[in-house]
Amino acid sequence: MSQIFFLFSGQCFFFTCHPYKYHFIKENKTWDEAQKYCREKHTDLATVYDMTDMERLRYSKEKQEAVWIGLRSNPETDNRTWHWSLPGVDLSVYSTETQEPSKTFHVITNALCWPEAQNYCREHHTDLVSGLNQLHDTDLKNKIQSQSMLWIGLFRDTWRWSDGSNSSFRNWNLELFKDDDSKKCAKCAMLNGKWDSDDYRFVLIKKKKTWEDALYYCRENYNDLASITNLKEQRWIQQKAKNASTAFVWLGLRYTCTLEFWFWVSDEVVGYKNWASGGRNDECDMSGGMERGGEHKWSSQPDNNTYNFICSTF
């Protein structure tokens, strides 16, 4: 099966097809676009089954910053599903005639949260205790008799692989990852192999364009220039703006001289506002830009200025 990865945040790379190798696509795509491309041209976005796969990806020839992988969360529609931390272990299967080799169990007395415990076990041993066979192991039972409470390798989440596989392998970067509803697609950092999540509603375009050219670019290649209708969207977009190469990024915010009001090009009402103090200028040929840094406030900018810009993807 061809395994396909897409680079995150608009940088480029190439790909070649070969079983059990990761292939890089030299196109700037959102997660949805990447999934569609892989399904049309190959099989699907890549699934990472275990640390062996992860190391194979990490030490591939293409040392990119980060790539899309085929892991996605849909908390609005999917229930949280239970998984064992150790890859390949069935959730509720127990066999008294197991052919597994004898295992050595280590009781770690450090007080850690569950993700830290999982990370510790993977770095120093194999994984957290996973599966009913391990839980029923006599050696394990003898070692934990004096312990009142211990973590085991059982977790649940709403993350699913694009190809429908049941891989429970996760390799989150504990310093960055937050399992919240705003970030629904997984990306892999190529330098350390750790994963983070990102939203796929907005994309930063690191091209310098006037407001009108930015509008046409977004409508031709994505959906539209980005609109901000609430605080959550403001936070999503300001995270994108931090990586801009210009002092401001264009938004889909425009002033109409004829009707004398500001409007979003997506026809959304300008209810939520985040103007900088003294930053709003109600004059002709003005459009809205967001600061790259600071508090990421909005301000009126002459629409013939050239800035990076934020596109909405749907």
TrEMBL record:
This is C-type lectin domain-containing protein. It comes from the Eukaryota. Residues 8-102, 100-197, 195-312 form the C-type lectin domain. CDD domains: CLECT (cd00037). Coiled coil: none annotated. InterPro entries: C-type_lectin-like (IPR001304), C-type_lectin-like/link_sf (IPR016186), CTDL_fold (IPR016187). Pfam families: Lectin_C (PF00059). PANTHER family: C-TYPE LECTIN DOMAIN FAMILY 20 MEMBER A-RELATED, C-TYPE LECTIN DOMAIN FAMILY 4 MEMBER K-LIKE-RELATED. SMART domains: CLECT.
